[in-house]
TrEMBL record:
UniProt keyword annotation of Coiled coil present: no
Name of this chain's protein: AraC family transcriptional regulator
Species for this entry: Chryseobacterium piperi
Alphabetized InterPro entries for the sequence: AraC-bd, HTH_AraC, RmlC-like_jellyroll, RmlC_Cupin_sf
Superkingdom assignment: Bacteria
Length: 270
């Protein structure tokens, strides 16, 4: 097909619509400096994405999933998704599976940190990067990797950003996303939603499964992940930029969300 766009081995026949021209059951695509599309797309293959460097946001239905460095996301077959990221560099591996075993695990989206054994398996799988041919070792290895995923999964629900369906709450979410570095005033947010504070708190919890306070904390920590990725700021500077008055308060909040302490990967030079 002339001028056809190929992504992860799939041919884009229309905007966001991919045709599977791959004959083998599992296809490996490893890419440095990944350039994502800014629109939704869909394909029939199930997708495992591992972020080796940087981070990605995956927009799927009424949720936005953060996939930080050394995390994976499982996306079932036929699920529309869109990717965004402000990371300077995104290195990732995508493995597309034509068939999966019958298990409830593979029917849902999952985001989790890749344990050392899974990272080693993914590193080994990179030897088949973009190969259209398939040998016995590759077929057995990738099938074993796929079938082992439920055992590796330690679900990271804290990396999900809920998006409410109630249109009255959208200005509230926008407010938090734009003013997370300030003291968030629930009265101001109630005015935006044109409802009482009590109603806002109740409806927000019903719609998203978390409180307004927890949502604000989640947004602050996810914004800090973006700042850490830039390698331009100290942790104290990042804490201040996302609205915390002390490094200790930021660290405590970060650990409660991310289950590990924040780390700046590169020393700041002055």
């Amino acid at each position: 097909m002339q001028n056809a766009k190929i992504k992860c081995g799939l041919i884009e026949e229309g905007k966001g619509l991919y045709n599977d021209a791959i004959s083998k059951d599992a296809y490996v695509w490893y890419e440095k400096d990944w350039q994502h599309d800014d629109y939704e797309h869909i394909h029939e293959r199930a997708q495992l994405t591992y972020v080796e460097e940087g981070y990605q946001y995956l927009h799927i239905e009424q949720k936005i999933y953060l996939v930080p460095k050394n995390h994976v996301i499982w996306i079932p077959s036929g699920v529309k998704h869109r990717t965004t990221s402000e990371a300077k560099t995104v290195n990732l591996m995508v493995i597309l599976f034509k068939t999966v075993i019958r298990s409830d695990f593979f029917k849902d989206v999952h985001v989790f940190a890749a344990p050392p054994v899974l990272k080693e398996m993914l590193l080994y799988a990179s030897k088949w990067n973009k190969l259209e041919s398939e040998d016995g070792e590759q077929k057995l290895f990738l099938k074993a990797l796929l079938n082992s995923l439920p055992n590796f999964c330690n679900e990271s629900r804290f990396l999900e950003i809920p998006v409410p369906e109630d249109h009255r709450l959208i200005p509230v979410c926008d407010y938090v996303n734009n003013h997370y570095h300030e003291n968030l005033n629930v009265g101001d947010m109630a005015d935006l939603a044109k409802m009482s504070v009590r109603s806002l708190q109740r409806i927000f919890k019903e719609e998203t499964g978390i409180t307004l306070q927890k949502y604000g904390q989640l947004i602050r920590i996810l914004k800090s992940v973006e700042l850490i990725d830039t390698k331009q700021y100290t942790l104290s500077e990042i804490a201040f930029k996302v609205g915390y008055k002390s490094l200790s308060a930021f660290t405590s909040s970060y650990i409660s969300i991310m289950k590990e302490g924040p780390k700046v990967k590169k020393n700041i030079s002055f």
